[in-house]
Each structure stands twice: as C-alpha cells, then as structure tokens.
Amino acid sequence: MESIQTKTGLQNWDVATVRERLTAGEIVLVDVREPVEYAGERIPGAISRPLSQFSGEGLSPGQGVVLYCQSGRRSQQAAQRLLAAGWPEVGQMDGGMIAWKRAGYPVVRDPKAPISLFRQVQIVAGSLVLLGTVLGATVSPWFLLLSGLVGAGLVFAGVTNTCAMGMLLAQLPYNRRAGQSWQ
Questions:
Q1: Residue 19 and residue 32: Cα distance in Å, rounded?
Q2: Which of 15, 46, 69, 113 is flagged as catalytic?
Q3: Residue 69 annotated among the catalytic residues of the structure
Q4: Sheet with 28-31: strands ordered across
Q5: Which tens digit of pLDDT belongs to each residue from 113-147?
Q6: Which residues of the chain fall below pLDDT 50?
Q7: Shortest CA distance to 17 belongs to which of 26, 6, 7?
C-alpha cells in the first residue's frame, strides 16, 4: 500500500512507504510528539514540531510532509491544523511510532534523555494517591480528598484525552531543555 487519500486531503501512509520515501529523500518526516518524547526516541531523519506549538511554520505543502506521533492521534490533530490553514493535502504515518517499531525499522534512542511524560505522570499521580491514603489513614481522613481528586483527574484525562498534569510536567525545565537540545 502506498497511501490512501481521504476526502479532506489527509493521506494515510503505511510505515513501509514512509521508510522508502524518507530514505529516498522524497518526504519530510515530522514528529509531532512533545520534545521529551522526541529526545528519548525518534525515527532517524525526522524533525521535531511538537503538537503543543504546532503551526506548520518552516514547512511548505510542496515538500511532501508526512506527520507522525506515538500512535496517530496527535498527528491527525496536526494534519487538521495544516488542512484548516489551506494545505491541499497532508500525509500521516498510520500507526505512528508504534507501527514503525513493530515493523522493526531503526530508531535513535538517547539513554540520557528524561523519562517519558507518561511515566512522569504515573509517578506523580501514584505518589499523590499514596500520600493522600497514608495521611488519610494516619493523620486526618480529610487527606483522602487528595487521593479522590487525583483519581477524578485521571478519569477526566481518560474521558477527554487531555492530561493537564502531563502538560504541566512538559513545561518543567529539564523536559523543555531535553527537547530543545535535539531540535
């Protein structure tokens, strides 16, 4: 399969075609994950344009731009922004980084990069729940509210597919610095 174009101008590319065209220098592969994710692991030759700041600046419709993220959700959002800005067509890699790695294609990894935002969110949320539970059992039952609020926040994040804690953690200096050093 090469690519499938939808009515909206969005082209879905399979990973084999993306690899072939990237190797031939026929496309510009754009990683729309956040800088810390890009710093930790990325496809060789891809450039970073995080979705949180994505505008298409520095890219042009004639370059053969193909977007990717971890699974395909964020790259679809970035593609919609380009299409809304008047681009006639935009490419997106089906399955994102997960499909790329599943196919056994190479990735660049940096063992010194900060841990992923997802893991940072798990550590902070889990610590707050544990702290609220321990303090609720030993000091005052009012501390159980902390655990309840974190649980409610996680449910909201899952339902709306937005994570305020993740967005806040992405703003920490070590996360921003890690990503910027790779751009």
A1: 17
A2: 69
A3: yes
A4: 3-5, 10-13, 90-93, 65-68, 28-31, 47-48
A5: 788 778 888 999 999 999 999 999 999 999 999 99
A6: 180-183
A7: 26
